[in-house]
């Protein structure tokens, strides 16, 4: 399939198994009950980078967190409406129990996410006590 990068949105890392296959591994540990806009921004930066493409998004069963990230991608990169992105959720075997995800998509500030994800990431500098 030509996959270059796997983005794992679960909390548990599988880096040892994946890097042994020669694939790039990026983990964005995500909470299915508390979607996070900064993680969406990080994800968009990863998928947009041609050196990472094609990208495979990995979740436990592929239904909830993965569908959130794909929906956000559709909205920010492909111009889909929240309504259209939410309508696609069942294709990923999305569990309707996670009502936070459709609500998050409905209120996602797509323009702000798009704008922020196109900026280079800032590196936080920490000052150590002397």
Give an account of the 3D structure.
The chain is mainly alpha-helical and 130 residues long. The protein has one domain (5-117): Protein tyrosine phosphatase superfamily (Protein-Tyrosine Phosphatase, Chain A, Alpha-Beta Complex). It has helices spanning 15-19, 37-48, 65-78, 82-88, 100-107, 110-117; strands spanning 5-8, 24-27, 55-58. Strands 2-1-3 form a three-stranded parallel sheet. Helix 1 (15-19) links the parallel strand 1 (5-8) and strand 2 (24-27). Helix 2 (37-48) packs across helix 6 and helix 3 packs across helix 6. The longest helix has 14 residues, at 65-78. It is globular.
The CATH superfamily is known as Protein tyrosine phosphatase superfamily
What is the β-strand count?
3
The level of helicity is: 40-55%
The strand line-up of the biggest sheet is 2-1-3
Beta-strand percentage?
5-15%
Shape: globular
Low-confidence stretches: 125-130
Features:
single chain; 130 residues; mainly alpha; Protein-Tyrosine Phosphatase, Chain A; three-stranded parallel beta sheet; 6 helices; 3 strands; 42% helix; 9% strand
SSE blueprint and pairings:
Blueprint: E1 5-8, H1 15-19, E2 24-27, H2 37-48, E3 55-58, H3 65-78, H4 82-88, H5 100-107, H6 110-117
Parallel strand pairs: 1-2, 1-3
Helix pairs in contact: 2-6, 3-4, 3-6, 4-5
């Amino acid at each position: 399939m030509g996959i270059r990068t796997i983005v794992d949105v679960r909390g548990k890392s599988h880096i040892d198994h994946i890097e042994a296959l020669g694939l790039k591994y990026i983990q964005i540990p995500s909470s299915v009950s508390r979607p996070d806009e900064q993680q969406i921004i990080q994800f968009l930066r990863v998928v947009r980078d041609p050196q990472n493409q094609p990208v495979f998004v990995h979740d436990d069963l592929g239904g909830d967190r993965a569908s959130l990230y794909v929906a956000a991608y559709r909205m920010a990169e492909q111009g889909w409406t929240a309504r259209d992105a939410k309508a696609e959720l069942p294709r990923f075997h999305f569990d309707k129990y996670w009502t936070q995800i459709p609500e998050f998509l409905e209120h996602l500030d797509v323009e702000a996410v798009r704008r922020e994800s196109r900026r280079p990431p800032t590196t936080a500098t920490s000052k150590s006590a002397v």
